[in-house]
UniProtKB/TrEMBL annotation, chains A, B:
Residues 1-19 have a biased composition (Basic and acidic residues). One of its GO terms (molecular function) is metal ion binding. It is a multi-pass membrane protein. It comes from Paracoccus liaowanqingii. The gene is mgtE. Acts as a magnesium transporter. Keywords: CBS domain, Cell membrane, Magnesium, Membrane, Metal-binding, Transmembrane, Transmembrane helix, Transport. This is Magnesium transporter MgtE. InterPro entries: CBS_dom (IPR000644), CBS_dom_sf (IPR046342), Mg_transptr_MgtE_intracell_dom (IPR006668), MgtE_N_sf (IPR038076), MgtE_transporter (IPR006669), SLC41_membr_dom (IPR006667), SLC41_membr_dom_sf (IPR036739). It is found in: Cell membrane; Membrane. Homodimer. Belongs to the SLC41A transporter family. It comes from the Bacteria. One of its GO terms (cellular component) is plasma membrane.
Length: 467, 467
């Protein structure tokens, strides 16, 4: 999609933030003032130098009331580029506030993959209304993409592709491209296809330009050529781009026929989202959490996880309750028991995080390799346990002047940190094997194990040794 | 860098893993068998279809003894592509095992940015030895990059750039490119420069190919044009690529003169690393943790963080110790106190994670926006506290049959969850303001706050109400 020439990058330093990226504080203040004063010309002037992505971010970060006011003033200027940058979390809200003809015009400007992204979560009635702005062939392309599963390569691809038969010469290909009037806004390769539209290779535009006019495309094709199935998961697609440094990849259907192309900027966005999901899931936050969410929305996402945590915390308390009388006799146990649990929880979270990351980057695969890592984590857990058994043994000894207490906490420390390491690696591995997202083994589950084991080991041992 | 034609992607399904990406279990088994049998031809045959990135991963995942054996068998086949894919964590080890001429040949094949990445952590003697393989001009380019700070755009860029004056025609430019014999392996734009080598815009190769031969480059330049300072931090560079969907960006020195270009695949790799750092730091794992690390290396990274956690856990225990006599009188307090601490810890971690992510994606900026989010988190914390105060109040009432105990735990829950929310948002914001990485506000620090506050609120209140 062509950038709007009016929206040329501003070079005035006061218009950029400290890092030099995104709108600066001065510019944001001017925009705020213009919204407050309902001053449309001032608002347009302030937004003129901004990139569509920054305008979309701005809209996202306004509180709902100001967003409404902003859109009332600026809706005529919203184009396809801004609309495709607006985050899902507020898109419905924005779409409702825009005049019908603005939406139609914006949708017509968008690449097919952006239209798919816009309409995929809508119900059929709404979707049909949006797609009615497109001409029949564009609409067919969008419908074709929507036929593939959610989060698949088929949803991510754009159907605008530049192809050529592999027997064409450089001159022929350049003439063909020059004569075309429907070229995609961005393309980096010519995809070679056979008469049945099976992709057989690709030629980079750089290679095409650098080669003699009579060279044949077949001879210029890159040695390494990878297609992506339209049914592949988008996370796998992002992995393939990152692993093999791809810039674009042809997408094929079940019969290996070319149906579209994915470019690296979309793969990069997916990689970013997948990371976001991992980090939010590990922390037990709904994976669609967003900075623009309202208080109610935020509560809706976080309460269920806290509820799960409450149940697991009560579970751990039940273990403590078993040893009530022991604690009453030796109250030092109540003082020290959170240390055992906390150390186990932290050690478990360390292992868990490394395991989840390794699974996400596909570096935890192959039986031999997995066992090496499991053995390593077990060894690390045991050694950590030994180290902190000594440290806490000494601390407990000095603090409460009791050798048996020191021995008890030392043993509990070793047991809990070894179990923490095993839970941290085995729970995510088991989830992955079962086809679930390993990041769902969030802190909550691993710390439940370490709390329960920690309290059991420490208090159980204490009750038989100290009383 | 050209892919080795021999290393063509294998299409045999048994050679791929279940997802169809990377080497499959069969292939890995064949490689293992070949290493065990010291069967060089079998090893070469098994590795032939593999991409350099997959071979590098394979080397990374072998345990040290097998890695040594593997390299003894395969070292002659290691080329620039494989070498530049090998992870930092094992690179020194691999370099030591390779014959001098293999390294020299590999280095000569690499792009300047990959050579910079290879030598930047070496001492000057080692660095000079590696760079001696290069001819004078390539060496100068690498030295120029190394003059920029670590983790800067200057280190990330490649110096091979295709430029043209903006008054050239399409025909002239294509003829120029066709005549050049030193073109970079991958390029997607022609950068327009003035006579003093200031970049003034760029033309995509697609646009160049699609335009009439007599069109002038100036008229084909993209509307949106962004340069990156060679001194910019690589994290900011990755952000700019992701935010503005750039494919490549010209890098300029302090005088705004073109010194190189960064392409999106490198930006994608940086984005991936930054995420990795965030997630590992949040979990209190050394941010260079790697799946190939040995037990000793892993311990070295994790022990310091666990030590920090031990100190903070002891701090929380000291709070409990103040109320020893209260606990002895009402032992139910020992049973319930971990629940208060755990709920606060979880709520704090949720807020913290969202805040760290928002800071990483630059969506937590602008005073008005920051205050909106702080207010939201405070409100969410208070409401969560209220909700769980009721739930836990009822649980405590039923469990221990005491109304005062129920009231005490309810109030402690509200206080701790509100404080947890504030700590979760304010600690990372303060770190960011102070110029530190907000992800360093790892779980450890936030849970210290929630443990201490939780125990204080619960036990302190109990000691004055219940005894």
């Amino acid at each position: 999609m062509a950038d709007d020439p009016k929206r040329e990058q501003s070079k005035a330093p006061s218009d950029r933030d400290e890092g030099g990226y995104g709108p600066g504080a001065d510019l944001l203040a001017r925009i705020d003032a213009a919204i407050d004063a309902d001053d449309r010309p001032a608002l347009n002037a302030a937004l003129e130098p901004m990139h569509a992505a920054d305008i979309a971010d701005l809209i996202e970060r306004l509180d709902p009331a100001r967003r409404r006011r902003f859109l009332a003033m600026y809706s005529d200027e919203i184009d396809g580029e801004i609309l495709s940058e607006i985050d899902e979390s507020i898109r419905d809200e924005v779409l409702e506030l825009l005049p019908r003809d603005v939406v139609d015009e914006a949708v017509r400007e968008m690449d097919s993959d952006d239209v798919v992204d816009l309409v995929e979560d809508m119900d059929e009635r709404e979707r049909a209304r949006i797609l009615s702005a497109l001409d029949a062939s564009d609409r067919a392309a969008v419908r074709q993409s929507l036929a593939y599963p959610e989060y698949s390569a088929g949803r991510l691809m754009q159907s605008e592709v530049v192809t050529a038969p592999d027997h064409w010469s450089v001159a022929q290909t350049i003439d063909f491209i020059r004569a075309e009037d429907w070229l995609p806004e961005q393309f980096y390769h010519v995809i070679l296809v056979d008469p049945r539209r099976h992709p057989t290779g690709y030629v980079t535009l750089g290679r095409l330009l650098a080669s003699r006019r009579d060279a044949t495309l077949r001879d210029l094709a890159e040695d390494s050529f990878r297609t992506v199935s339209a049914f592949a998961e988008e996370g796998d697609v992002a992995y393939v781009f990152n692993q093999y440094h791809l810039i674009s990849a042809p997408v094929v259907d079940r019969d290996d026929r070319l149906v579209g192309v994915i470019t690296i900027d979309d793969a990069m966005a997916v990689l970013d989202e997948e990371h976001e999901e991992d980090i939010l899931r590990l922390a037990g936050v709904g994976d669609e959490s967003n900075i623009s969410d309202s208080v109610t929305e935020t509560l809706r996402q976080r309460l269920p996880w806290l509820m799960v945590n409450l149940v697991t915390a009560i579970l751990a308390s039940l273990v403590i309750a078993i040893y009530e009388t022991t604690i009453q006799e030796v109250v030092a146990l109540a003082v020290l028991m959170p240390i055992v649990a906390s150390m186990g929880g932290n050690a478990g979270t360390q292992t868990l995080t490394v395991a989840v990351r390794a699974l996400a980057t596909r570096s935890l695969s192959g039986r031999r390799n997995v066992w090496r890592v499991v053995r390593r984590e077990a060894a690390v857990g045991l050694l950590n346990g030994l180290a902190f058994a000594v440290v806490m043994g000494v601390v407990a000894w000095i603090w409460f002047d009791g050798v048996s207490l020191a021995v008890v906490i030392g043993i509990a420390m070793i047991v809990n940190m070894a179990i923490a390491a095993l839970a941290g690696i085995l729970i995510p591995l088991a989830l992955e094997r079962a086809g679930a997202d390993p990041a769902l083994a969030s802190g909550t589950f691993v710390t439940t194990v370490t709390d329960v084991v920690g309290f059991f080991a420490f208090l159980g041992l204490a009750s038989s040794v100290l009383t």
